[in-house]
RNA sequence: GCCCGGAUGGUGGAAUUGGUAGACACGUUGGACUUAAAAUCCAAUGGCCGUUUAGGCUGUGCGGGUUCAAGUCCCGCUCCGGGUACCA
């Protein structure tokens, strides 16, 4: 039987499409629902690469399996189609981005369909479709109309915000400002990262640590622009807590926790000597107040100029200017050597009323905490480094917990910094009444905070690294903001009935030089006049690409609804997403933003669950072999030839070493799924992607492996695809046992996303069945069922061959019959002092004393006992026997 | 620096979570079929020693430890990958 994979695969893909086999109905009467989601792709111009089908195949296997287990499965696909490349292409060629996008989506859809993935294509969505982004704009309006009630820890409608009387007394503008300052979405001046190559503002998250733009590698600079921002930090605590109950990889949760960056400590107020100015600092170590020997303000801090004394004015001004310039340079330079200048001012340390100098230095960041610190050089490494450089006093206030006496002495003398725990010294003051001497860190912090609060010098405080989310981009190809800026300086959002606000057609897509979006040139679209003749201008920025992907999982639930974002009943039925699979590169941004929006929607009563994604799994990256010379120079794949397992440069003949690297055009090692499907078929592609190794591991692509699984499918087809091999006689006991073991193994492995071992068990069974040569129809049909999630085309073909006229997509997953798995005997490995010596087949019922005597009296034991009596015999039933001599 | 992963044959990877290390597959070698090659099938395959028959030693990045028993647990390292970075 020839394995005509192309024929079979085309036939079944057409069948599934014609019969809408995988159409998903909102059958709310079935209590078993399963929502399984892929991270939808950005449809790039280069089409699918082999990394995409990895995650898609994994979810497809689970989806097909769950259907066979009787679940109502929601398994949709769509396109995250706003993005820069289509716009850049438009600039070069004048082609409208929507044309490019449609073409790319068509390619992606065709490629994905050829893999035989069981999506419900009737639910396909596209973030660039006005019917979709209408609701993205709608959510933005909700964010604009929401404030965060810190007492209730929840977002509420802006109409429910009580404006205090003292604000009301100040008039309409003050009220307006008060309200705007509370909105989750707000418009304000912001210092932003600007990429002059892409002519775009970047979120902090899009700037790499070396100060370059992650998209293009060009260095970014700072710029002040009016921007839309989202107050995600209000949700920091809930985003943090919410992680605890999610079935996500711990590493991803840790990354989110780090990103949110919660730290607990206190705010402390320092009065400036001879003024009534006050500096408030945030510190996690209020217990070290006695060691504070100076203070530092960020150069941008509003008090820096104010408290500088005349004689230091010039120096400080220069420093402020220099550091503003400096932040335009490579940011890593900042990290190297600390600089700063004295302001001439002194602050009063509240715990002992001592005067300490106030400096300004750019190692203190303006965006974190209060932008000012108390410096405790003896117990903070950054402060220590700074103090050493500028000769500031270093006062040790803690006897360190260390047995290194020499180190201890150096620390107490202030020659070394100690940041760990210890016992306080020099930490009391009779005037202020605080005394933490002889305490340790935890108690010291506690007691100091109490003292600060009792004396109104500070308060317990929690700080987060998470900043406001910069939410606008100077781009054409994104969701337009449903916002009008009026000539009187007010802002209004569109009414829901005016949505969607579509993009205007443009002739040119070039952005302006100074952060102006291309939309600023769309005259007709841009200018509006209200009923009273008031002139206004639409917002010309568009939303970032994150916007569309923040909530797409909700639209899949009810993609054609034009009355509301989705029906409440359907949301209640389908949410939350039961399994979400995608790349780890979205560990922080997409997943955090998405959770944030979900929580806002939850607070406003639009969704029924607090978290969108119950279980998350990250597939590993698919790498490829690459070649390099002895000096480490990379050699493109087409310049390499293999001889006797060694690799040589085709031209120079130099021997090369094989390494594993990311697929890249320059290395010429990119694998195109289309080629694999053409040569080996979609089932082989699917099987190989899963057989390579654990789903979450990074692993190199090796075409020899594809040949391996292709060979397996060929053998499956040869045996099971030939009715001559289907017998009416009974199956042997061992094949029935193997079959049931395989059912159990594959089912369990699918549940645990361990597809490589599931496939291995299918191979083991097939190898045994081939040895037998014949199987019963019942066995063959069962095998087709368990093969189905992995290689659905071949499985359907076999199923039809056995006389079934319906697709096996909804056949019941076979039940494991424990009867067939029972064992009476076990071949025990018998070891002496832990070393395996021989094997002994024994009844599993046999009592221990009988086993012992059989082992001792076995002739093979004589050599190892050497006439001695064993000290102990350990018998683990069904496992092992170990004789201790 | 800090936070996560990881290291097992020539290669990708298994190992019931403390109980026969190397499942399954690739590759290699030998054989069958063939005029020949490809394809297919059968067999062998961690390393070393021994071999007429056995068999033995050794082996999961390195060094210690716990245990009747360690790839798996504990302590101390090395190397590789990812994230993050003056966050007070």
Mind explaining what this structure looks like?
By secondary structure, the protein is an alpha+beta fold. The model has no long low-confidence stretch (mean pLDDT 91). Strands 10, 11, 12, 13, 14, 15 and 18 form a 7-stranded mixed beta sheet that branches. It is built from 30 helices and 37 strands. The protein has 5 domains: 15-137 and 548-619, HUPs (Rossmann fold, 3-Layer(aba) Sandwich); 263-395 and 427-463, Isoleucyl-tRNA Synthetase, domain 2 (Alpha-Beta Complex), CATH 3.90.740; 623-669, no CATH class; 671-817, Isoleucyl-tRNA Synthetase, Domain 1; 823-884, Ubiquitin-like (UB roll). β24 (579-583), α20 and β25 (616-619) form a beta-alpha-beta unit. The structure holds one RNA strand of 88 nucleotides.
Keywords, please?
37 strands, RNA-binding, six-stranded mixed beta sheet, alpha+beta, 5 domains, about 900 residues, Isoleucyl-tRNA Synthetase, domain 2, Rossmann fold, globular, single chain, 30 helices, seven-stranded mixed beta sheet
List the helices and strands and how they pair.
Layout: H1 5-18, E1 33-38, H2 51-68, E2 72-74, E3 78-79, H3 84-93, H4 97-114, E4 125-126, H5 130-144, E5 146-149, E6 154-157, H6 165-168, H7 172-180, E7 185-195, E8 200-202, E9 220-230, H8 236-242, H9 250-260, E10 263-272, E11 278-283, E12 294-297, H10 302-307, H11 313-326, H12 331-334, E13 340-348, E14 355-361, E15 372-375, H13 381-390, E16 398-400, H14 405-412, E17 422-424, H15 441-454, E18 458-463, E19 469-470, E20 483-486, E21 491-493, H16 523-526, E22 527-529, E23 535-538, H17 546-549, H18 552-555, H19 568-574, E24 579-583, H20 589-603, E25 616-619, E26 622-628, E27 634-635, E28 640-643, E29 646-649, E30 655-662, H21 673-680, H22 682-691, E31 699-701, H23 703-720, E32 726-727, H24 733-751, H25 755-772, E33 775-776, H26 777-787, H27 792-801, H28 818-821, E34 825-832, E35 835-843, H29 848-857, H30 862-865, E36 872-876, E37 880-884
The protein binds one RNA strand of 88 nucleotides through helix 9, strand 11, strand 15, helix 13 and helix 23.
């Amino acid at each position: 039987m020839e394995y005509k994979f192309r024929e079979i695969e085309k036939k079944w893909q057409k069948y599934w499409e014609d019969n809408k086999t995988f159409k998903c109905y909102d059958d709310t009467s079935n209590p078993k629902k399963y929502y399984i989601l892929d991270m939808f792709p950005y449809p790039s111009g280069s089409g699918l690469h082999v990394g995409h089908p990895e995650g898609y195949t994994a979810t497809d296997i689970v989806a097909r399996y769950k259907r066979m287990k009787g679940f109502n499965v929601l398994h949709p696909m769509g396109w995250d189609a706003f993005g820069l490349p289509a716009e850049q292409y438009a600039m070069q060629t004048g082609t409208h981005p929507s044309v490019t996008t449609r073409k790319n989506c068509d390619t992606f859809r065709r490629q994905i369909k050829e893999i035989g993935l069981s999506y419900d294509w009737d639910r396909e969505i596209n973030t660039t479709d006005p019917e979709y982004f209408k609701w993205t704009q709608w959510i933005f309006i909700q964010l604009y109309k929401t404030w965060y009630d810190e007492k209730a820890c929840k977002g509420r409608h802006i109409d429910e915000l009580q404006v205090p009387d003292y604000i009301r007394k100040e008039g309409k503008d003050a009220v307006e400002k008060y309200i705007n300052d509370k909105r989750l979405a707000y418009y304000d001046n912001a210092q932003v990262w600007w990429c002059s190559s892409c002519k775009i503002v970047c979120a902090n998250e899009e700037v790499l640590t070396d100060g370059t733009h992650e998209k293009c590698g060009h260095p970014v600079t700072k710029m002040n622009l009016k921007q839309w921002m989202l107050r995600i930090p209000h949700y920091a605590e809930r985003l943090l807590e919410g992680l605890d109950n999610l079935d996500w990889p711990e590493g991803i949760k840790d990354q989110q926790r780090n990103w949110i960056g919660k730290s607990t400590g206190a705010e402390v107020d320092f009065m400036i000597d001879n003024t009534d100015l006050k500096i408030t600092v945030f510190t996690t170590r209020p217990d070290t107040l006695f060691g504070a020997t100076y203070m530092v303000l960020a150069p941008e801090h509003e008090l820096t100029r104010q408290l500088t004394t005349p004689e230091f004015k010039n120096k400080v001004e220069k420093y402020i200017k220099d550091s503003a310039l400096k932040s335009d340079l490579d940011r890593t330079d900042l990290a190297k050597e600390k600089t700063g200048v004295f302001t001439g001012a002194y602050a009063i340390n509240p715990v002992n009323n001592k005067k300490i100098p106030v400096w300004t230095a750019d190692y203190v960041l303006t965006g974190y905490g209060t932008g000012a610190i108390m410096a405790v050089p003896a117990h903070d490494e950054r402060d220590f480094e700074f103090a050493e450089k500028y000769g500031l006093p270093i006062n040790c206030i803690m006897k360190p917990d260390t047995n290194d006496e020499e180190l201890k002495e150096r620390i107490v003398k202030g020659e070394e910094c100690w940041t760990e725990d210890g016992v306080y010294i020099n930490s009391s003051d009779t005037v202020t009444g605080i005394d933490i001497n002889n305490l340790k860190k935890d108690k010291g912090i506690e007691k100091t905070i109490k003292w600060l609060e009792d004396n109104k010098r500070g308060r317990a405080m929690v700080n987060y690294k998470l900043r406001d989310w910069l939410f606008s981009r100077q781009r054409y190809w994104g969701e337009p903001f449903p916002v009008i800026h009026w000539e009187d300086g007010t802002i209004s959002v569109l009414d829901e009935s005016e949505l969607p606000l579509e993009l205007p057609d443009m002739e040119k897509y070039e952005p302006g030089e100074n952060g102006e979006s291309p939309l600023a040139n769309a005259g007709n679209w841009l200018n509006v006049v209200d009923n009273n003749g008031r002139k206004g201008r639409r917002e010309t920025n568009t939303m970032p690409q994150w916007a569309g992907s923040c909530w797409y999982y909700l639209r899949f639930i009810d993609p054609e609804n034009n009355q509301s974002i989705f029906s409440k009943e359907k949301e209640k039925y389908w949410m939350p997403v039961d399994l979400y699979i995608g790349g780890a590169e979205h560990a922080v941004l997409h997943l955090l933003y998405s959770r944030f929006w979900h929580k806002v929607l939850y607070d406003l009563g639009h969704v029924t669950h607090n978290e969108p994604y119950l279980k998350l799994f990250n597939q590993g990256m698919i790498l490829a072999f690459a070649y390099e010379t002895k000096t480490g120079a990379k050699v493109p794949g087409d310049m390499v030839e293999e001889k006797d397992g060694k690799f040589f440069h085709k031209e120079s003949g130099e021997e090369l070493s094989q390494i594993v690297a990311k697929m890249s055009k320059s290395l010429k090692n990119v694998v195109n799924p289309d080629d694999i499907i053409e040569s080996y078929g979609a089932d082989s592609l699917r099987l190989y992607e899963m057989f390579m190794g654990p789903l979450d591991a990074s692993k190199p692509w090796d075409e020899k492996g594809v040949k391996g699984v292709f060979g397996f499918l060929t053998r499956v087809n040869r045996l099971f695809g030939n009715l001559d091999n289907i017998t009416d006689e009974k199956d042997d006991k061992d094949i029935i046992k193997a079959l049931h073991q395989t059912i159990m193994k594959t089912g369990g492995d699918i549940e645990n996303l361990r597809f490589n071992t599931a496939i291995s068990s299918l191979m083991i069974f097939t190898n045994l069945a081939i040895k037998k040569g014949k199987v019963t129809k019942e066995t063959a049909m069962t095998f087709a069922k368990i093969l189905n999630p992995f290689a659905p085309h071949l499985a359907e073909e076999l199923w039809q061959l056995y006389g079934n006229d319906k697709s096996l997509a909804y056949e019941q997953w076979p039940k494991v019959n424990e009867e067939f798995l029972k064992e009476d005997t076990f071949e025990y490995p018998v070891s002496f002092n832990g070393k395996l010596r021989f094997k002994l087949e024994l009844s599993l019922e046999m009592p221990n004393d009988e086993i012992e005597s059989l082992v001792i009296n076995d002739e093979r034991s004589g050599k190892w006992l050497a006439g001695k009596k064993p000290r102990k015999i350990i018998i683990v039933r069904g496992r092992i026997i170990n004789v201790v001599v």
